[in-house]
UniProtKB/TrEMBL annotation:
UniProt xrefs under Pfam families: ATP-grasp (PF02222), PurK_C (PF17769), RS_preATP-grasp-like (PF22660)
Reaction(s) this enzyme catalyzes, per UniProt: 5-amino-1-(5-phospho-beta-D-ribosyl)imidazole + hydrogencarbonate + ATP = 5-carboxyamino-1-(5-phospho-D-ribosyl)imidazole + ADP + phosphate + 2 H(+)
Gene that this sequence comes from: purK
Top-level taxonomy: Bacteria, Pseudomonadati, Bacteroidota, Cytophagia, Cytophagales
Keywords (A to Z) from UniProt: ATP-binding, Ligase, Nucleotide-binding, Purine biosynthesis
Protein name, per record: N5-carboxyaminoimidazole ribonucleotide synthase
Organism, scientific name: Hymenobacter oligotrophus
Amino acid sequence: MTSVLPGSADAAGRRATLGVMGGGQLGRMFVHAAQRLGYFTAVLDPDAQSPAGLVSHHHIQTAYDDPAGLAQLADLCQAITTEFENVPAEALQTLAHTRPVAPGAAVVGIAQDRMAEKAHFAACADVSGVTCAPYAVLETPAQLQAIQENRADLLPGILKTARMGYDGKGQVRVRTAAELAARWAELGGTACVLEKLLPLTAECSVLVARGCDRQVASFAPQRNVHVGGILAVTHAHEGNMPPALATRAREAAVAIAEHLGYVGVLCVEFFVVDDGSEYGRLVVNEMAPRPHNSGHYTLDACDVSQFDLQVRAMAGLPLPQPRQHSPAIMLNLLGEVWFDANGQMQEPDWHTVLSLPGTHLHLYGKMHARAGRKMGHLTITGPDVVSVKRVARRAAELLGLPGLDAI
Ligand code: ATP
Ligand code: MG
């Protein structure tokens, strides 16, 4: 692939333009990174008020599989990426007939389907050195019966829909074989995986960027704390996890990206499981074929962010190894922050929060706050881990955020 040089124009004077499928907050931060380098941007998203559409040069307001919308995106852009994994893989395939698309339809297709994703993790376990949680595929009544009869080892477990799950949606805990049957029926008998419930001591994720020339850059693992199935706090600083585990997670994520022949930014999520050993065992959970909520701290704490690397990877530009210059903690800001204890709407006290040193507020431009909706995030950076934790705790207290005891 030839590079799409920033700030360039073609013979007709049309400026180099990068496109993104999806207009959520990840698309918005991608657009900001692309524009900073001098690119024009195009977003395809059906929502007139989409966070990325609001800040992009072009907003194509059609369905993701609309042929005319896809043709317009391909016409406007020299390279195209995606900001969420549930965009139809066929749409990426269509775009790829005429434009470089990174990540490609095949790898996005794998990440869209927990069964294919787990099969991939198993296929590269020898090189990555990690396996996923014990699991069984559940698509047919015969498989249900076989699990009930032969896989008592998977209970208690978590039943997860194979497709379209996010933020803990589409998954339910089951304790017994009878409960498994009942919950699967409630999910409409859709394709699922049943995963053994593991004793987690921590969760972490690793961001890897890989170019079409096989250059690889990665960030150190960040430790993530979830509340109610949604990311609440990300710790990105020394001491966030044992160094030996961090090294293994980073190497495993790179191996997984390489085994996929991946191009773009990939986030790989891991569990740390208590196995009686000093630090626990690393287990791979899932991957997101895009920048990730847990990597937002890179905007303020690193010399190159996850979105810069996405731009560079898709445009065929160099991928330098990022350097983190400050310890950081990220606090996710969900819709709850916009309501008081009586359920009344209230604007959070940004004045006080922003008076704390090293606070970086990112709001995504969403019009309506709703419980569980990702409205923004607050990253805290500072000269050392102790002061970052102190400020993060104070900010979380002021905003009434959950997960305070994890900071
Ligand atoms: P997202 O896409 O937002 O990361 P998701 O809905 O795809 O989430 P998972 O990442 O699979 O779902 O699971 C959500 C959370 O549930 C995990 O971060 C972890 O806290 C818990 N969890 C999932 N699987 C297991 C397991 N096998 N054992 C213990 N806890 C688990
Ligand atoms: Mg997850």
